[in-house]
């Protein structure tokens, strides 16, 4: 279940879509940044550098400083597929982030989104 096209997409192209999605529902850019930093281990400065560098999704996730061990607690359906059943590790990481952004947009409490 590989999809090289999505892996090659610049993260900086997808990031504004996440922001638009949550802002339409009353959440903020800061909320999106928080879930990205929690999931990947990037700092705010590192995240901004990644956005400026036009890093692909593949590079963004492969070079994440400290991918959160609690990511395995993220469950549910995204794009009609259960995230916990995705076999490709890179695609699963991408879908984990999609799921977190969906939860932010739905107004779920941040403490629950971050699996604390």
From TrEMBL:
**Listed Gene3D superfamilies:** uncharacterized protein sp1917 domain
Task: Tell me the domain of life.
Answer: Bacteria
Q: Which InterPro entries match?
A: SP1917_dom_sf (IPR023204), UCP033199 (IPR014580)
Q: What is this protein called?
A: DUF2200 domain-containing protein
What is the protein's species of origin? Paucilactobacillus wasatchensis
